[in-house]
Amino acid sequence: xxxxxxxxxxxxxxxxxxxxxxxxxxxxxxxxxxxxxxxxxxxxxxxxxxxxxxxxxxxxxxxxxxxxxxxxxxxxxxxxxxxxxxxxxxxxxxxxxxxxxxxxxxxxxxxxxxxxxxxxxxxxxxxxxxxxxxxxxxxxxxxxxxxxxxxxxxxxxxxxxxxxxxxxxxxxxxxxxxxxxxxxxxxxxxxxxxxxxxxxxxx
Length: 203
Known about the structure:
Elements: H1 2-17, H2 31-60, H3 63-111, H4 115-128, H5 136-139, H6 156-202
Helix pairs in contact: 1-2, 2-3, 3-4, 3-6
Transmembrane segments: 6-25, 32-53, 65-90, 170-192
Protein name: Tetraspanin
InterPro entries: Tetraspanin/Peripherin (IPR018499), Tetraspanin_animals (IPR000301), Tetraspanin_EC2_sf (IPR008952)
């Protein structure tokens, strides 16, 4: 249950409080990346629910509930492996999608500076701590946040790739931790089932 709640909190933080959250405030957003976060939150909610039934099964010494708990953990484990493969294959698509959103905003600003586009590109720059696409001449006219390191953070396309790579690594670490907990949960549920059966046979 605790692991499930931690996963929910982690997924919501990445979606609404992380660096990429700034891309979700406009009409366009990196849906492929956010879809993975929604799956992560859903898996956390399922883990929390399954954990509750596992506790009930252990408290009541119910082989039926413990067997159901084992089956649910097995499904969650298979889903985690599938999601990991999906995230690895789709990483390039997520990066390209986020870069395309920035490039569209950048082009709109260059065609008509000011107004809503000005606020949008500034939000992107503030969230990513970068400015422009590496062209120092055009960069001078862009709305850039203060105190960003130049020219290290002058290319937002590179920063987007770095940030998504870093976030996916975090998701991967969390996924491995959840997989380990899931395996231990399956082992312990089977051990409890065997102990309960042996105890009842002795009685």
